[in-house]
Structure formats: C-alpha cells, structure tokens
C-alpha cells in the first residue's frame, strides 16, 4: 500500500506541487493535473481575489482526479475559519504570518475533529467524504490525513518556533521576503539572514516530527 500524503510530508519526501490561479476552470484544473502529474495543487487566497465558490470549484475538480488542494488562507486572523475552508473541499491548509501560540491553538481546534480539535460536523461535505459516509469513520480519517501548516515570516515567529510547532502541525515553510522586511527593520544579535533563521529553526526542531522546507 502506498504511503498517505501526510505521512510522506512528515517523512520529508518530495511532493510534486502545482500552483494555479483562483480563476481556473474545472477543465484547466484537469489539464494542470494531466500536464504536470502533480500530487497536490496550491491555491493562494492571501495575495489575490477569491470567493468560496472558487475554492469549492477547484477543490471538486481536483478531487475528481484524486488530487487534493493546499489552500493558503487570506489572513492569520482567519485561523478560526479553517473548518469552513475544509468544508469547501480542501485537504491541506497553510496559515500565513503565524507568530503566537494562540493562533496555532485556534488553527488546530478549527482544523481537526474531536478529540483533537473542535471542527464542526458539516454533513456530507469535505475532501474524501464520499468514500467514508460514517461520521466517526470520516473524523478519524480526517484527523489522520488532514495536512495543516503555517508560514514563518518574522523574527518573532523564528524565535517562538519551539512553542508554535505543536502536535497537529504537519509542515512549516518560510516567507523569505517578509522575513527580510522584518530583519531589515530591526537588529538581532545573531539572526542576520534567512540562512541564520533556517539554521536556528533546524536546531530547535531537530527532535520534532514536522516538515520544514
């Protein structure tokens, strides 16, 4: 049996990803999958216009081909809405500009079903629901397979990383441009570059099961 995508994330394996526009049609989604052989499609709410219909349309089209969606949400403060985004059909979510533990807690609570989180049961909606009609079966499957991550985009996030990466966080990645803005506006005694920050995080998380790249 092949490894689940989340398991491969945590193992640090290469995942083929394609990024598409929020305006993509069903046919364009199918073409992207056929042309690239991608294993996950990335869409970004933070830096462009979108509607919930866009997210739902793209997610449904990708799932028709067995490919999940990774969604970057509009704003850090929208962590409370992750359950709603999941109900639209995405399997993976990235929260931008995370700096504090309370945001991580809110994200975990809204992303996962009980007993891990407090995501509300929405009926027959969500990625993978058609194969798992039982409520408890789907909740268990989701909690094992949903992929949740966040972006490190400030010195505060770098320095807090040990408290931010909690059970339930699958991956973290860098927003180097915003991190550089932050470093250019303040002086830190030993974190002077993005490379310094990467090295710091790698050491802080060397015994933590999370994907960092």
Question: Layout of helices and strands, plus pairs?
Answer:
Elements: H1 5-10, E1 17-19, H2 26-36, E2 40-44, H3 52-64, E3 69-72, H4 82-87, E4 92-95, H5 101-111, H6 135-145, E5 147-152, H7 155-159, H8 161-164, E6 171-174, H9 176-185, H10 194-204, E7 211-212
Parallel strand pairs: 1-2, 2-3, 3-4, 4-5, 5-6, 6-7
Helix pairs in contact: 2-3
What top-tier CATH class fits best? Answer: Alpha Beta
* CA distance, first residue to last residue: 26 Å
**Arrangement of strands in the largest sheet:** 1-2-3-4-5-6-7
The proportion of residues forming helix, as a percent range, comes to 40-55%
CATH architecture assignment: Alpha-Beta Barrel
Mean pLDDT across all amino acids: 94
Order of H and E elements: HEHEHEHEHHEHHEHHE
What class would the helix/strand composition place it in? alpha/beta
The figure for the number of domains is 1
CATH topology: TIM Barrel
CATH superfamily annotation: Phosphoenolpyruvate-binding domains
Shape: globular
Report the sheet-strand fraction: 5-15%
Total count of helical runs of at least 4 residues: 10
